[in-house]
Write a structure and sequence with these properties.
Elements: H1 2-29, H2 35-57, H3 69-81, H4 87-96, H5 100-118, H6 123-142
Helix pairs in contact: 1-2, 1-3, 2-4, 3-5
């Protein structure tokens, strides 16, 4: 049971950090903020990535049960399947990992699955799939 609860905690933490990362990107694109605020964004985004990386590799630092690499990878895979990951958030977490073995164990299976899902497809296929998913989501929400 501890493994399931630690995975759920990791998923919740990563969802929160993904939202923070997304907010940083939106602020960066929005030119109405003063330059001192915009200059802080790379540091903030790096801290978000550091916390995400540590949450996957050293959860004990934050008083949580440790999460095995395969569970962290499975968490990333499920977030990818639900289209909850951004490239900026993944990049920040990957840059924060210091151990190549941990990076390969966590990101390897996830990237393998992502590459296989893209095999044989082009950008038009992906855009059509995104539109279909959006249509289905709107349809289910309207019921």
């Amino acid at each position: 049971m501890a493994k399931l609860s630690s995975r759920a905690l990791l998923a919740e933490k990563l969802k929160y950090l993904r939202e923070c990362s997304k907010a940083c990107e939106e602020v960066r694109r929005d030119a109405r903020y003063p330059p001192p605020v915009l200059q802080q964004l790379p540091k903030v985004h790096q801290m978000i990535g550091n916390y995400g990386s540590l949450s996957m590799t050293c959860a004990e630092l934050f008083g949580h049960d440790s999460v095995p690499s395969d569970q962290a990878s499975a968490c990333l895979k499920s977030m990818y399947d639900r289209r909850e990951l951004t490239i900026f958030f993944l990049d920040a977490m990957a840059n924060a990992m210091e151990e190549p073995d941990q990076m390969a164990a966590i990101f390897g299976p996830f990237l393998n699955q992502a590459c296989f899902s893209l095999r044989g497809r082009n950008l038009v296929d992906q855009k059509l799939e995104d539109r279909f998913r959006t249509f289905k989501l709107i349809q289910t929400e309207s019921r």
